[in-house]
Design a protein that fits this description.
Low-confidence stretches: none
Strand order of the largest sheet: 1-2-3-4
Mean pLDDT: 86
Distance between the termini: 23 Å
Strand content: 25-35%
Number of helices: 3
Number of strands: 7
Shape: globular
Length: 181
Amino acid sequence: MKKKNILYMAAWAAAAVLLVVLALALFLATGSDIMLLVCTAIFMADIFCIPMLKTKVMQKKAAQLAKDFPRRLTFEAHDGIFYFDSEKGRAAVVWRNNPFSLQTIDLTKVSGIEVKDGRQFRGTMRVWCQFLLNGEKIRIHTLWVSGNRQLGMQHPKVVSAISKAEQLAEVLSEARAKALS
């Protein structure tokens, strides 16, 4: 399973670098304080807008690719959009860093389906459903807290994320059982 398309990722990185270089060139050419402010705005846009644009591209391409894939459940995780069809025993994914292909998951090669709550001392930062596909761990995150923060285990977001991960594990198990039969 190919999670990353190197050319796609390189194009986004090149765009980010090009924006920063352009901003710095404008600042050095003019030397004004306003251009420093413009450079800062471009740099911040680079940091925040590119991930949002990558997500939009993933969503748009996934909708196009999966229009003919019958599904019982669609789940958008941090790094991909997963499609499950437990009636026919099929699953597919469109990865964030490889949005141009709908990759089917051979459910007969899936094992070790489990839910992880990421519990640490005071709470958790991540909750996910994971499984092994040909010996490789595949994680479907239902909660990803950024900024090195934790949420308490009784926090509504954590409880909801655990419930979603359990639902994903159940649908994945049903689809796997159907694929094996």
